[in-house]
Specification:
The protein is an alpha+beta fold. The protein contains 14 helices and 28 strands. Helix 3 runs antiparallel to helix 14, helix 4 packs across helix 14 and helix 7 runs antiparallel to helix 8. InterPro entries: 6-hairpin_glycosidase_sf, 6hp_glycosidase-like_sf, GH15-like, Trehalase-like_N. Belongs to the glycosyl hydrolase 15 family.
Length: 674
């Protein structure tokens, strides 16, 4: 297939195994105008006849963030996914989902594959080194951070305590020719509203160095400032120049109220401030002196980048609809905050000494729990409750995978693990304080009451299946967590009557699980009355439902390790044993493999745990990032990227192994052994 006109043909295509995806389907009620230049949804999938694809591998993207918006940059130097002003806003660059849906590239003319890419150590600043036939070029990309700028008025978005630093809403891109001569090109082609709209370019002044793309109000206008001269060519703003050794240039794209840099010195200063911000932040953490320290730090930086700082929300991933199965339908929008992640996030952040981020995320959880409304499993980054799901039929999808979903219909599912997640989060938050704040008691009591009311009913479980509700064992487990942590907190709050009442119900749920949730081998099963295994049962020892030396715990962990794996990596469940309402296979879930590492440590299988952890770390992307899944046969990353849940599980697994090596395993989520 010939690459689309709107993004110039790369000199090298990316090899990605797997069958071609199905022809995309139109979505009723939505604008179905084909994006100019891409294969229409009635034509062939975006894959060449020789099996190659113009899409970069998911793992080859770099992640940038200013903690209010984020971007993914392909190896070619093109920003191929970016949503502003929030991570769940409509995208302005969407080439990751359709090669004709807009991108913003800086790089040498005629060369698309760089020599090297890295993050500057301790930062989210990307450095790309290019070699051409005539010279060498270094490009640095960052989403600028600067001093707090809401000085005379209060912010309309910030609910958390202001910090010394704030997002400047500027993407800064600097270029330096370090040897020889290089022809540089810049192409910026925004396509607002998930490529359903077109931007209108205008010059801002009498010269060529300042232009603005009017996005029609769906997205904010985009201002480009540069030391280069822009030409407007239809939907594109373009610049080109020949650089010789020592030459420098910059391009800055802004979408907020702050002015973009107007000189190389200003751009270099913005880059330096951003570098200092990230290094000052990572220095606040506590990281062990261990060969795996770099993975912990990169995971921490990624989690910080996936945080929406105005509210403290932590989004599950930066993207929507990157497929869990190549060419398949398991494509979801993960740009929202899941309550389930709260316990994992708080444990990981507190463990690494990043208390401020943990406290801010807990404050977000507190905000959404404060009203008397029924608790949802997920929310928008501003606490929005309605996340209606719809499909974008005009986009071809990553390697043809359809549908492209925006929103997530699971927001109104009933999932009974949510109360346990909240109660465990409250417990984690209050343990170090040795008292329960007065404002948390009504929230605690309400969530315990909800768990008590619903624990015996079926739900859709931790994996949000779209089949019929079932009596999932992990959901019962989390209801037990709600009652158990509620009883502990009630004692802390000096409410012995509630503590006794809730502990009694916790014991009842405990007995029910041990009666109905085990098979004849003494292995915990996915749901009552069925023999299927489920990786969520690795949480049994991690949440201290049973002590790790209990034979049922050991049997469960080893059964999952031996029977629910594909080439040694863990599946969530077998799709032929679970009614999840979908078709097709899925890859191994990396979070589940990291859970297995932690669980193996718990049952004393340290050598096996270390070996699996080393293998999982070897699957990290070239920039030490993780998507949701890994194909164990190829090492290919699948699903949304980068994935917060995976990085949280990595932190827990690595710390489990390190502490076990030091003889100091002290419990998952900081929970004491019982």
């Amino acid at each position: 297939m010939t690459p689309p006109e709107s993004i110039e043909a790369p000199d090298v295509t990316y090899v990605a195994p797997g069958p071609a995806g199905p022809a995309p389907a139109r979505t009723a009620g939505l604008e179905a105008r084909p994006v100019r230049g891409h294969t229409s949804s009635d034509g062939p999938s975006p894959r060449a006849f020789d099996g190659r694809t113009p899409f970069p591998s998911i793992a080859d993207y770099a992640f940038l963030s200013d903690c209010e918006a984020n971007a993914l940059i392909a190896p070619s130097g093109a920003v191929e996914w970016m949503c502003v002003p929030r991570p769940d806003s409509p995208s302005i660059f969407s080439a990751i989902l359709d090669r004709g849906a807009g991108a913003f590239r800086i790089g040498p003319y005629g060369v698309r594959v760089p020599v090297a890419r890295r993050y500057l150590p301790g930062t989210l600043i990307l450095e790309t080194t290019w070699q051409t036939g005539t010279g060498w070029l270094v490009v640095r990309d960052a989403m600028a951070m600067g001093p707090w700028h809401e000085v005379d008025t209060r912010s309309n978005t910030h609910r958390r305590t202001p910090t010394d630093d704030d997002a400047e809403h500027i993407l800064v891109r600097t270029v330096k020719c370090v040897s020889g001569t290089v022809d540089l090109e810049v192409t910026c082609e925004p396509m607002p509203d998930y490529a359903r709209g077109e931007a209108e370019w205008q010059y801002v002044s009498d010269g060529y160095s300042s232009v603005v793309a009017r996005c029609g109000g769906v997205n904010p206008d985009l201002h480009l400032e540069s030391s280069l001269r822009f030409g407007i060519e239809g939907r594109r703003a373009q610049a080109r120049t020949r650089m010789t050794e020592g030459d420098t240039h910059f391009v800055a794209m802004s979408w907020g109220s702050l002015p973009a840099p107007t000189s190389w010195a200003d751009a270099a200063e913005a880059m330096w401030r951003t570098e200092q911000y990230w290094r000052d932040w990572i220095t606040q953490g506590k990281f062990p002196d261990h060969p795996w320290r770099s993975y912990l730090q990169r995971s921490a930086l990624t989690l910080k980048g996936l945080t929406y700082s105005p509210t403290g929300a932590l989004i599950a991933a930066a993207t929507t609809s990157l497929p869990e199965t190549p060419g398949g339908e398991r494509n979801w929008d993960y740009r929202y905050a899941w309550i389930r992640d709260s316990t994992f996030a708080l444990w990981g952040l507190y463990t690494l000494g990043l208390d401020r981020e943990a406290n801010d995320f807990f404050s977000f959880i507190h905000d959404v729990c404060r009203d008397n409304k029924e608790l949802q499993i997920m929310y928008g980054v501003g606490g929005e409750e309605t996340l209606e799901e719809f499909e974008l039929g005009h986009l071809s999808g990553y390697e043809g995978a359809q549908p492209i979903r925006v929103g997530n219909a699971a927001y109104n599912q009933r999932q009974h693990d949510v109360w346990g997640a909240v109660l465990d989060s409250v417990y984690l938050h209050t343990r170090s304080r040795e008292q329960l704040p007065e404002s948390l008691w009504p929230i605690l009591k309400r969530q315990v009451d909800e768990a008590a009311k619903h624990w015996h009913k079926p739900d859709r479980g931790i994996w949000e299946v779209r089949g019929e509700p079932q009596h999932f064992t992990s959901s019962k487990l989390m209801c037990w967590v709600a009652m158990d942590r509620g009883a502990k907190l009630a004692r802390m709050y000096d409410e012995p009557d509630y503590a006794e009442q809730w502990q009694k119900l916790a014991d009842e749920i405990h007995k029910d699980i041990l009666t109905k949730g085990l098979d004849e081998r003494g292995v915990f099963t996915q749901r009552y009355g069925a023999p299927a295994l489920d990786a969520s049962l690795l949480l049994v020892p991690l949440l201290r439902f049973l002590p790790p030396d209990d034979e049922r715990v050991r049997a469960t962990v080893l059964a999952i390790a031996d029977e629910l794996t594909d080439d040694g990596l863990v599946l969530r469940y077998r799709v032929d044993e679970t009614d999840d309402g979908l078709s097709g296979e899925e890859g191994t879930f990396t979070i589940c493999s990291f859970w297995l590492v932690s669980a193996l440590v718990e049952i004393g299988e340290l050598d096996r745990a270390r070996a699996l952890c080393e293998r999982l770390l070897s699957y990290a992307s070239p920039l030490n990032l993780y998507a949701e899944e890994i194909d164990p046969k190829t090492g290919r990353h699948l699903g949304n990227f980068p994935q917060a849940f995976t990085h949280l599980a990595l932190i827990n697994a690595v710390m489990h192994v390190i502490r076990a090596e030091e003889g100091a395993v002290d419990g998952y989520f900081g929970a004491p052994r019982t």
